[in-house]
Amino acid sequence: MACCTHNRNAIRILASLTAIFAVGLAGVCRADDALQQQAESALLQRLHAAYPRATRFAIDPLPTEWRASAWLERAHVAHPTVLVTRVGSRSAVWVGTSPESGVPRGAMLWFQVAGYAPAVVATQLLASGTALQAGDGEMANRDIVAADCQPLTDPAQLAGMRATRLVLRGDVLCAGAVEPLPPVARGERVTARFAAHGVSITTQVVAQGDGVIGAPVAVRNIGGGPVYSATVTGKAEVSVSD
């Protein structure tokens, strides 16, 4: 009988300790949730400032074993500073003492971030150097945070431009991925005017490099042959003289 009583008392004590532990753990989790919400709120403000065209953000905390509230309590940080230190697809928020307080005490919370906005995307594979037109792009909703660039906002911006790097179909077209076409572009067929002894002849040649008006550019006859120099005189036009 005494044995049974002893077992019942042990069970009651274990149940009480379990309940106390559960209450304490719930308090820690609630504190951690509150700190995470503060971190996410601060991060969202920075994201809106960094990506004003984004219409929606998705913020997902990355896994961590760090218990913010318990750590800060042990470090005697009663009022932690929440500071966004990195903004992008992987964003970071510091939770702990302020940077001015000397030796930092706290830890970094990391988040996976996506931000969606209308942007111009390529309608086909675009090789570097490709002359572009408006039909090479279309509007679509894309993750501009992942694109990590200033996206074009109107397919009409592609007219008179060329690709500066390979762009895959469906990829966001960044402002840095295009540039204005020069008056004479490498590989382009241009009109060449030969003038000598009062006689002028017009023919087609292939530019061997880019050229601006008034500057020399290397050209070659369409059928091949040696490379020679011409002067850029206009859009897709060069002149050759003795």
Model description:
The protein is of the alpha+beta class and 242 residues long. It has three helices and twelve strands; from the N terminus they run αβαββββαβββββββ. Strands 1, 2, 3, 4 and 5 form a five-stranded antiparallel sheet that branches. A five-stranded mixed β-barrel has the order 8-9-10-11-12. A two-stranded antiparallel ribbon has the order 6-7.
List keywords for this structure.
single chain, 242 residues, alpha+beta, five-stranded mixed barrel, 25% helix, five-stranded antiparallel beta sheet
Taken as a percent bin, the fraction of beta residues is: 35-45%
**Poorly predicted sequence stretches spanning 5 or more consecutive residues:** 13-31
Shape: elongated
**Main beta sheet, described?**
5 strands, antiparallel
**H/E element sequence:** HEHEEEEHEEEEEEE
Per-chain topology:
Blueprint: H1 2-50, E1 56-61, H2 68-74, E2 81-86, E3 90-96, E4 106-122, E5 137-143, H3 144-147, E6 161-163, E7 178-180, E8 189-196, E9 199-207, E10 216-221, E11 227-234, E12 237-241
Parallel strand pairs: 8-12
Antiparallel strand pairs: 1-4, 2-3, 3-4, 4-5, 6-7, 8-9, 9-10, 10-11, 11-12
Short recap of the structure:
The protein has about 240 residues and is an alpha+beta fold.
